[in-house]
Amino acid sequence: MNDASRTTPQIALLDAVRAAARQEQFLEVVSAEGAKARFEKHLDLSPFPAETVPLSDALGRVLAHDVAAPIDVPPIDRSNVDGFALRAADTTGAADGAPKRLTLNAEVIACGHAPKLTVGPGTATAIATGGMIPRGADAVVMIEQTELIDASAPVIDVRRAVSPGMFVSYAGSDIARGETLLRRGTTISSREIGMLAACGLVEIDLVRRPKVAVLSTGDELTALGAPLRPGAVYDSNGAIIAAAIAEAGGEAVRCGAFPDDEDALETAVRGALKQCDMVVLSGGTSKGAGDLSHRIVSRLGAPGVIVHGVALKPGKPLCLGVVDGKPIVVLPGFPTSAIFTFHAYVAPVIRAKAGLPVEAAVQLDATVPVRIPSEMGRKEFVLVALVAGENGKIAFPIGKGSGSVTTFSQADGFLEVEALRTAVDPGTIAKVTLIGQPRAPDLVIAGSHCVALDAVLAALSAQGISARTIAIGSMGGVAAARRGECDLAPVHLMDPATGIYNEQYAKDGLSLVRGWQRMQGIVFRAGDARFAGKTAQNALKSALADPDCIMVNRNAGAGTRILIDRAVGTVRPPGYGNQPRSHNAVAAAVAQGRADWGVAIKSVADMYGLGFLQLSPENYDFLLLDARRERAPVQVFLAALADRDVRARIAALGMVPT
User: Fold this and answer.
1) Cβ atoms within 10 Å of 633's Cβ, excluding its own
2) Sign, CA torsion 579/582/586/589
3) What separation in angstroms does the CA of 244 have from each of 58, 240, 247, 495?
C-alpha cells in the first residue's frame, strides 16, 4: 500500500513514526567542562543590584552594602548581674571577717528604667541584671557577696572587694556607633539578624534574588493530585526544581506544565522571559519526536542555543541557551538527570547573581565494593550511599537510573567516572563529592527489601535509631555481609538442593536471625482465563505452552529469581529477559498489561488488585554479623523484631512472623 491509498489518520501516524525514527541529532556533544565555559562566556555573573528588604525576610540573603552601626550596643552602661551598684573604693579591704557596711539608697533599678538617685560615698543602690548603672557608681557587687542587715535604715555588709568596672558592660563595648557592623557580601544567618536587630534596623539593603521561571514540558505530565492516566507521570520535576532554585538563593516562579504543543509552549516561554531573569524548563531535550524545547530556544533571540548535548551521564540531552543576556536552560526530563544538571550548570549562575559565594565541594575517599560499568566517551556521575567499613568508608552505587525520583535524595554523594573509562573495578579508592551534610546511620541494612521491613524500621526510628537500607538483592546482601559492609543483610534465598531458605549462608561469622514468612505466587490480571481457577502448577504449564503469554521475570541474584528458574526449568518463555528489581515492578507490569504473569508476594498482588496463585512460602530472614551483635543499635533492632506490636503490624501486611 502506498501513501496515496492510505487514509489521513494513517498518513499522520506514519509521519509520526518516521519522525521518531529519524530523530534530529544533537547540535554538538561537548565535554562537561566545555559546556560550562561556553555557557558562562555569554553571561554576566556579577550580582544583581540592591533592594531594600525587611529584616524579617533577610535570612539567607546577601548584603549589598557595608552596614555601619547607628548606635552603641549596649546603648548604656549596664549591670551584668543582680546586685548592688556602688563605688569600688568603698569596698577596699572587704572580706568575710571584715565586711564593709553601706547604706542602701531608696531605689531599685530594674531593666528599662533610668536611675533617679546618685550613688554617693558609703551608699549602694539595688540593681537588676541589665539595669542602667547610676551616676556615681563605678562597679557592681553580686548579691551573693552581700548580706542585708536589719536596722533602722536598710544597710548591707559587703564581704568581697570589687574593682572599678566589675560586672559592668560599658556603652558601645559590644558594638560601637559608626563601626562597620557587617561587610558587603555577608550571607545573613540568624546571628547577623541578631546583630542588626540589636542596632534597631528594621530593613536592610540586600542583593536582589534572581527570579527564575520554572516550566515543565511533556504530554505525559499530570498535575499533582490528579488521577494518573496510562502512560502518564506526575510533574515532580516542577516541584523539585522550584525547591532547588530556592536552595540556591533564587526566587522560583512556577509557570506550570505544558503539553508538547510548540506554539503554546513558545508563548509561555516568551512570557516567562519578560517576567523573569532566567528560565528553566525540564523535558523536551532528548531526540524523540515530541522534543521541541531546543527548537523554541533557537528562535527566541540572540545568541540562542549555546550548547545542546553534553558528554555527561546522566544529563547528555542538556540544552543551554542565552536570550538577550538572560539564561534559558532546558534540563533533561528524568528527575535524576534534571537535578544533576541543575546543580552543575544552573545553581552556580543563580548563586552568582544572588551574590552568594561559590559552593565549595567537600570530598572524601571511599572504597567501591562492586564493579560499576560506564559508557566510554561520557563523563559519568554515579550516586552513592556511604557506609562505614573496616578500613574506611564504603561507597555503594545507587543504581535506580536517571528516571528515579528518590535516587538523589537517598544519596550521600557521587563519584566521577572519567570519559575514557569503561568501568570502576571493585576495590577502587574513589573520590566521593558529598551532597549536603550526610549523617552516619546507626544501622546499615543491605540486601533484599520487603514492605514489612518498614514496620521494624519505624520502631527503630521511634527510639531515635537511624537505619540506612541499601536494596542490592539477597545475593548482594550476602556479599556485603561477608565483606563487613553492613550490620544485617535481609535475604530470602532457597538452597536448590534442599529447598531450605537462607541457612546455607549462616557460617563464617554470620548468624541467621529469623524474620517472617511470606507467600510467593503467580500474579495475573483478575479474570484472565489462562490462570483464574487453576492451581499454580497447571497455570504455569499453560502459560509456558502459550507463545502469546508474556511473563515478567526478576533480576539475577534475587531470591524470587531462584524460585522462578526452578519453576520454569530450561524453558525461556516470552518476557523472560524483562528483569525488574522489585515485586512492585512485577505487579505494575502485569496490572498495566505489559505482561500477563509474573512471580511476586501476595501482599503486593493484593495492593495492585491482581489475582494470585500460591506457589511456595519463603522465609525472609536476616544475616547478622556476629562481630556486631552487641552493638546497641543491633540490639534495638533485634528487640523490635521480637516486639508484639511490631509483629502484629508485620502480620497485618500478610506476612507470618517466625
Assistant:
1) 20
2) negative
3) 19, 6, 5, 48
147: helix, coil or strand? Answer: strand
Q: Where are the alpha helices (DSSP H) in 546-616?
A: 559-568, 583-591, 602-607
Mean pLDDT of the chain: 89
| Average of per-residue pLDDT across 236-261 | 91
Buried b vs exposed e over 546-576: b needs ≥16 C-beta within 10 Å? Answer: eeebbbbbbeebbbbbbbbeebbeeeebbbe
Cell of 639: 528487640
Share above pLDDT 90 across residues of the chain, in percent, rounded to a whole number: 63
Sort strands 100-109 and 123-127 into parallel, antiparallel or unpaired: parallel
The full 3-state SS of 454-473, as one line of letters, equals HHHHHHHHHCCCCEEEEECH
The dihedrals phi and psi of 389, each to the nearest 5 degrees, come to -110, 180
Phi and psi at residue 656, in whole multiples of 5°? -120, 105
Check residue 129 and report its DSSP letter: T
Res 18 pLDDT > 60 = no
The CA distance from 495 to 8, in Å, is 60
**Start-to-end C-alpha separation, the chain:** 65
Are 328 and 297 in contact, with CB atoms under 8 Å apart?
Answer: yes
Residue 73 contacts residue 199 (beta carbons within 8 Å): yes
- 573 neighbors 543 (Cβ within 8 angstroms): yes
pLDDT 10s digits, 450-474: 889 999 999 999 999 999 888 888 9
Residue 91 DSSP label: G
Q: Helix, strand, or coil here: 478?
A: helix
User: Tell me: the pLDDT tens digits for 486-521?
Assistant: 999 999 998 888 889 999 999 999 999 999 999 999
> Could you read off the pLDDT of 563-581 as tens digits, one per residue?
899 899 999 999 999 999 8
Taking residues 383-403, what's their average pLDDT? 76
Q: What is the pTM of this model?
A: 0.76
Task: Write down the pLDDT at residue 446.
Answer: 92
**Grid cell listed for 552:** 515478567
